[in-house]
Amino acid sequence: MIAKISHGSSLYGVLSYNQLKVDGYHADVLFGNRIIEPQGDAPYTVEYLSRSFEDYLTANRKTEKPILHISLNPDPKDSLNEEQFISLAEEYMRCMGFGDQPYIVYRHNDIGREHLHVVSVRVDETGRAISDSYEHERSMAVCRELEQQFSLTPATKKEWKEGLPLSPVDYKGGNLKGQLAGVIRPLAREWHFQTLGEYRAVLSLYGISVDEVKGEYGGREYHGLSYSATDREGNKVGKPFKSSTFGKEAGSDALEKRMQASATWMKKHKGIVTDIATCIAAAMRIAGHDRTLFERELMRQGIGVVFRINDAGRIYGVTFINHADKTVFNGSRLGKEFSANMFNDLFAGQDGMRVPGLPVEEVFPPTACREQGESPYEYPARQSGHSGAPERQEYGMDNSPGHKDNSADSMANALNLFAPVSGSTSGDQPVPRQRKRKKKRRYGRQQ
User: Fold this and answer.
1) Which residues neighbour 131 within 8 Å (Cβ) at sequence distance 6 or greater?
2) The whole model's pTM is what?
3) Among 220, 237, 350, 382, which is least packed by CB within 10 angstroms?
4) Which of 90, 80, 113 minimizes the C-alpha distance to 32?
5) What φ, ψ does residue 403 adopt, rounded to 5°?
């Protein structure tokens, strides 16, 4: 079993992410510990759940990232029933020192296997931080114990290393080469893309650019790739690295083979192409000419979108990124109705403030997710503008810069731990102020 731990500052980001999975029938609520229970058969909502954590966050003294988001991932060969999943989550939280904290447990089934997501807080009722010293090492030890206790398939050292969340590159965080390798290698190996542009689009979500390098040396022509970190405006920072730095799988020859293999894979999985096209078409119908709403509707389906915009403000490229299936599609490849020209006609001239998006499964964050244990769910809001480069990219997926929203209220809400998320699908309901201390389980799918 592999556990992924992320710390963040946005409670609404992480709750909304899981709620979107529940709304889309890709997850259900297993149980809550010290969580205020809805009255009767009322479902959990983001607003309702937030009340159970409110006192803890209000009392928080100086912990910058008080939100805890954990995923527990048994091996796909392991088959656990509902009671076993509940016991597994309870034991993990108890052993990690969070047994007396409020937390809510979701069971996800959207990536071909069942796994758990746990949302809690890292501060106690007095506002003191719960220690995260040697957190990763302690988590590994706990998982080893639980593998024996629940007769789970043990995770190998390689699986532990590769199972960690992908983290957007922080060029100021040191060990830039290591950060780049931690993203480039799994993306080049696991994702399905058919062009270098599609590969470049998904790398851009993690603050990485890739460029072709062609020339002649010693009378011989060469063709290679170089990778660079980028800042939040998409500008390259630091020195570039040759693809050989990250192994053969990151080079042009290996990527060419990967693209060919992806084309073959796509032919065998035509349903994925049909599904993403259906989701995009539905989002277009709902959003009309509202680009912000379009991006939100896609986000509800776990789909990111990268618009490429020139200095004149024209959309000349669009790429869709399906995080659940790790697939990338240029819009025109899905059909003329999804081409850049179509979206330019729909959204031409729409610009505004860049505000945080919501998280995705495999970036758990990554959102996650920028360094070990950091949440992928938020970027500081900033004014969009030209960086001096011939183009800029604006991202409509969580853990990536630039989910757009022209509303001042939405900007304020995005930066407020307790404010409802703009565009939330969950309604606000009256909530009793008295906290129930007794643990109560809720079984079955919560819609």
Assistant:
1) 97
2) 0.50
3) 220
4) 90
5) -65, 125
